[in-house]
Write a structure and sequence with these properties.
By secondary structure, the chain is mostly helical. The chain contains 1 helix and no strands. The longest helix has about 55 residues. The radius of gyration is 23 Å and the shape is rod-shaped. The mean pLDDT is about 85.
Length: about 55
């Protein structure tokens, strides 16, 4: 019985940890997405500028 209680406690702790990680990314996703989009736009701008200079 004691081992089953320990396994239950470990399962609860694991679920709480997973929920915390998901919650963190859920809160941070708009900033992460904005950063990715900004960097992607910078890469596209650089690529189009370098192509127009070569033509």
């Amino acid at each position: 019985m004691k081992a089953a209680t320990g396994e239950l406690n470990l399962t609860v702790i694991t679920l709480i940890a997973i929920a915390a990680v998901i919650g963190f990314f859920w809160m941070m996703w708009p900033k992460i997405q904005s950063s990715i989009n900004t960097q992607w736009d910078d890469i596209n701008t650089y690529k189009s500028n370098s192509q127009s200079k070569g033509s």
